Amino acid sequence: MGDDRRLNMLLKVFLKWCMTDDDTEEENRMVYERMLMTLAQCEFSIAKSQHVLAMNDAEMKNYEQLYSEIEVGITNAQKKIVENKLELQKAKSIRKNKQEY
C-alpha cells in the first residue's frame, strides 16, 4: 500500500474513531491499536526512505570521485600518447639519419 493511501486511511479511521460514541471499549481499543500499527508502518516507511536517500547520496559522491579519477587518467593517457608520438618521431629521424650515413 502506498504511503499516501496509508495516511489517508489513517486519517479516515481516526476521524471515524473520534466521531463514534457507540462503540464498545473493546472496539475502541482495537481501532486504536490498528491506528498505532498503521502509524508505525508509516514511520518505518519514512525511515526506510531516508536510509535509501542517504545511500543514494553516498553512491553519488562515490561516482563523482570515480568520474574525477577517470578524467585524470584520460588526461594523463593523452599526455603520454603525445609524448610517445614525439619520441617516435625522434626515433624515426635518428634511424633515418643513421641509414643515410
UniProtKB/TrEMBL annotation:
Pfam families: THOC7. GO terms for cellular component: THO complex part of transcription export complex. GO terms for biological process: mRNA export from nucleus; mRNA processing. Keywords: Coiled coil, Nucleus. It is found in: Nucleus. InterPro entries: THOC7/Mft1. PANTHER family: MAINTENANCE OF KILLER 16 MAK16 PROTEIN-RELATED, THO COMPLEX SUBUNIT 7 HOMOLOG. Belongs to the THOC7 family. This is THO complex subunit 7 homolog.
